[in-house]
């Protein structure tokens, strides 16, 4: 550094820089005080000629790119307009350490010095950059603490149920005096219409079309509705009387970049002090429908994107999967003389091309010879399966599960690995403490301290995560969750009109796979491990025959469409635990890497005869002819 630059008494062309972080009246007053202070400082330096002053009002100091006056000052420095910048404190110049050092270095190359008056730092002094780096680090740390205080303030405001936003919410008017919402009945009726229609299963576009036809106005007072507007209404928990927070967040206290939070599970909902427009049950029902219609897929860049989907209104359509891999569609099966309609199901491949067409044109990849079947067969199988599993054989099922669970060994964490990780974490902690002492005694530079401390922190995070994963594997029991299965089996099974309720099927049936014209595969989910049931049906569609019987398959079954290996079942034909199966045979039957639930586990088989079908249909005032009935065999797997 030459002596001319260090001569403080030489004539200087000076500019002042001042900044306040908000446009609050008190802060603006503080800015006026800053500029007045600068003028008094200039009067005590007769060699200074003040050529300009630069002021940023209501702007953060963590990013230079967001301060137009600051950037204009840098450009003027390049043109030689001045050779000294005077600012009150390092935190007024910047709260970002990188910005502070990079800009002061750039200015030094241009022959421009920066004087931080309150801190007594001249950047062209021999120790100027060292002192500046320390003060800039403190300023950045203060910015981080301010960010934490802001977050703490937000948490307190949530507890006080403070309303955010401008209050422009369809269905409500903002009462600013009392900081609450009051219902706007005209708009609230529109909100109720949206939720009630959507709850019936209508899509977003159909709801929007209805609103347009009825001339309902949106929040801006226009009759202009589309699917996105309807979605925004459905997502607002405000309508059931809740304040919703954490819908957006600041990702970096330095950049102050705010992004929308798309993870609705992380939203914070607090019961508000204002009246609800709809009840909670209706809101949650619509919310479940909306989420069920959303598909999360990866785009061409590998980023997750949300897409709309459809939900089948029939529960069986959501469970049926053909052995050829296709889904099923519900079709009209029969119209009786009195006009009553009955329904059946057909593989989607049949709706595209007929079996005869595919055979004639040599298209074996599209072949599926599964014939259509009536819905009542599924209902009959469901009744018999649930009567057996949840009724007469419930205790036997639990005993079989306990016997199978005993064959799975609990995985324990390797003590040597755990001890090595503990030693590594302790060593890293000691290394970081030594590094702090070295910086405090000026044995290393700030740059070296930051680089080494960041590397140590990264190693600590990796070691801690590895230790947690090791302990997590130990906590996972290799056996079946008997308590969860027993809780599921204690659910009350009621058959209204001779049928299992849709809720029960939706909850406990994972999928149903028709294997051919007579055999069906049922996959039950008794949480958390899936249970599987296979059935077989024979006979013509008007007079089918259904059977269910049982053996237990303890080994792995890679694909539900494959034939299971010939092994005994856990329950015998009478529904009792199979005493012919030893623990050694069970252990021999499973793959070493297998975990419960990864493949179906056989439980039992049942056979539905004509008498079962006849009694079931008679209770529904329907007829099953013996000549057109074939038995259905059902295999139940866990």
TrEMBL record:
PROSITE patterns per UniProt: RECOMBINASE_DNA_BIND (PS51737), RECOMBINASES_3 (PS51736)
GO molecular function, one term: DNA strand exchange activity
SUPFAM superfamilies: Resolvase-like (SSF53041)
Domain Recombinase: residue ranges: 169-296
Cross-referenced Pfam families: Recombinase, Resolvase
Superkingdom of this protein's organism: Bacteria
InterPro entries to which the protein is assigned, alphabetical: DNA_bind_recomb_sf, DNA_bind_recombinase_dom, Resolv_N, Resolvase-like_N_sf, SSR_resolvase
Boundaries of every Resolvase/invertase-type recombinase catalytic domain copy: 13-161
UniProt name for this protein: DNA invertase Pin-like site-specific DNA recombinase
């Amino acid at each position: 550094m030459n002596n001319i630059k260090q001569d403080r008494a030489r004539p200087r062309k000076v500019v002042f820089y001042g900044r306040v972080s908000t446009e609050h009246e008190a802060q603006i007053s503080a800015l006026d005080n800053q500029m007045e202070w600068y003028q008094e400082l200039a009067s005590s330096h007769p060699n200074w000629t003040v050529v300009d002053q630069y002021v940023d009002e209501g702007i953060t100091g963590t990013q230079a790119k967001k301060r137009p006056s600051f950037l204009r000052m840098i450009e003027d420095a390049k043109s030689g307009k001045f050779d000294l910048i005077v600012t009150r404190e390092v935190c007024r110049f910047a709260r970002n350490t990188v910005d502070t050092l990079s800009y002061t270095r750039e200015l030094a190359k241009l022959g421009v010095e920066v004087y931080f008056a309150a801190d007594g730092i001249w950047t062209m002094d021999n120790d100027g950059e060292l002192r500046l780096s320390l003060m800039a680090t403190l300023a950045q740390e203060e910015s981080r603490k301010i960010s934490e205080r802001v977050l703490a303030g937000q948490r307190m405001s949530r507890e006080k149920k403070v309303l955010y936003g401008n209050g422009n919410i369809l269905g409500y008017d903002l009462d600013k005096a009392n900081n609450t919402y009051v219902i706007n009945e005209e708009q609230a009726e529109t909100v109720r219409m949206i939720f009630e229609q959507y709850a019936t299963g209508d899509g977003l576009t159909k709801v929007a079309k209805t609103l347009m036809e009825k001339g309902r106005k949106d929040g801006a007072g226009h009759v202009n509705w589309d699917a996105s507007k309807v979605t925004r209404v459905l997502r607002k928990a405000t309508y059931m009387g809740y304040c919703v927070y954490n819908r957006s967040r600041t990702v970096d206290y330095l950049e102050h970049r705010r992004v929308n939070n798309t993870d609705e599970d992380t939203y914070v909902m607090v019961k508000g002090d204002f009246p609800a427009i709809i009840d909670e049950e209706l809101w949650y029902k619509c919310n479940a429908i909306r989420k069920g219609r959303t598909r999360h897929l990866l785009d061409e860049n590998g980023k997750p994107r949300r897409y709309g989907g459809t939900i089948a209104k029939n529960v069986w359509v959501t469970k049926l999967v053909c052995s050829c891999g296709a889904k099923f569609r519900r079709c009209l099966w029969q119209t009786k003389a009195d006009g009553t309609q009955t329904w059946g199901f057909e593989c989607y491949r049949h709706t595209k091309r007929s079996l005869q067409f595919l055979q004639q044109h040599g298209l074996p990849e599209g072949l599926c010879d599964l014939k259509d079947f009536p819905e009542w067969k599924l209902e009959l199988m469901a009744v018999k399966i649930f009567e057996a599993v949840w009724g007469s054989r419930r205790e036997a099922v639990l005993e079989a599960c306990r016997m199978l669970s005993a064959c799975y060994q609990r995985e324990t964490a390797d003590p040597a690995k755990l001890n090595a990780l503990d030693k590594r974490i302790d060593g890293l902690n000691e290394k970081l403490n030594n590094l702090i002492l070295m910086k405090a005694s000026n044995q290393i530079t700030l740059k070296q301290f930051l680089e080494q401390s960041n590397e140590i922190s990264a190693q600590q995070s990796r070691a801690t995560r590895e230790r947690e994963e090791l302990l997590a594997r130990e906590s996972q029991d290799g056996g079946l969750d008997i308590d969860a299965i027993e809780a599921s089996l204690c659910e009350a099974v009621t058959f209204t009109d001779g049928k299992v309720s849709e809720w029960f099927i939706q909850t406990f049936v994972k999928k149903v796979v028709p294997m051919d014209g007579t055999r069906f595969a049922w996959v039950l989910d008794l949480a958390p491990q899936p249970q599987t049931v296979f059935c077989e049906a024979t006979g013509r569609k008007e007079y089918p025959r259904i059977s269910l019987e049982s053996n237990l398959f303890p080994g792995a079954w890679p694909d539900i469409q494959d034939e299971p290996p010939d092994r005994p079942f856990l329950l015998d034909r009478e529904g009792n635990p199979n005493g012919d199966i030893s623990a050694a045979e069970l252990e021999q039957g499973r793959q070493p890497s297998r975990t419960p639930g990864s493949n179906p586990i056989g439980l039992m088989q049942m056979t539905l005869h004509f008498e079962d079908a006849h009694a079931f249909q008679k209770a529904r005032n329907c007829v099953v002819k013996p000549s057109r009935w074939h038995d259905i065999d059902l295999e139940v797997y866990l």
